[in-house]
Amino acid sequence: MAIDPDLLAILACPSPDHAPLREETRAGAEVLVCTFCESSYPVQDGIPVLLLDDATPGPNGLGVGADAP
């Protein structure tokens, strides 16, 4: 199930850098991926779970942005 485009346009990574998200399928599961840190957030029953504790860190770390210490 795809995320509504209007909702996707306002969602952002909950990490301090607040980058936009994009939809992807990883390992057969729908996820939202941060366009900066590349961390992925699960989508369960069409509902994005944007909790840092439930995220899979990306190659740039989890929530690591230009403003992060």
Q: Rough shape?
A: globular
Low-confidence stretches: 65-69
Q: What oligomeric arrangement do these chains adopt?
A: single chain
Distance between the termini: 37 Å
Protein model, in words:
The chain is mainly beta and 69 residues long. Helices cover 9% and strands 28% of the residues. It has a four-stranded antiparallel beta sheet with strand order 1-2-3-4, with no helix packed on it.
Describe the structure concisely.
This protein is mainly beta and 69 residues long. It contains 1 helix and 4 strands; from the N terminus they run H-E-E-E-E.
What secondary-structure arrangement, pairings included, does this model have?
Elements: H1 5-10, E1 21-26, E2 29-34, E3 40-44, E4 47-48
Antiparallel strand pairs: 1-2, 2-3, 3-4
